[in-house]
Amino acid sequence: MGEILPNQRCAMYVCICNAITDHKIKEAVASGANSLTDLKDQLGVATCCGCCADLATSFLTANAGNAHTQMHSSIAVER
């Protein structure tokens, strides 16, 4: 008991007040959430004490960085 199997994903609670995990936030971002307001509206993150706002926002920043990298990786450079 307590063993993590290879196909299991561990979740981290980002918002303790509303029991919101990193998985839920990542899913919301993947579905189009692009601001803390979107995450608040869709999930309720950072609507109680607000201590999770910075961490929740970091998922948005990380996703924006990935999109930026993917966009630039498709540009061909001619020499």
Description:
- This protein is mainly alpha-helical.
- The chain has a two-stranded antiparallel sheet with strand order 1-2.
- α1 crosses α3.
- The longest helix is centred in the last third of the chain and has 21 residues.
- It starts with 12 loop residues before the first strand and ends in a 6-residue tail after the last helix.
Mean pLDDT, as a whole number? Answer: 83
Q: Uncertain regions: pLDDT < 50 for 5+ in a row?
A: 68-79
Tell me the major beta sheet: 2 strands, antiparallel
Helix content: 40-55%
Order of H and E elements: EEHHH
Work out the strand percent: 5-15%
Gist?
With 79 residues, this protein is mainly α. It has three helices and two strands, in the order E-E-H-H-H.
Task: Describe this protein with a few key phrases.
mainly alpha, disordered C terminus, two-stranded antiparallel sheet, 79 residues, 2 strands
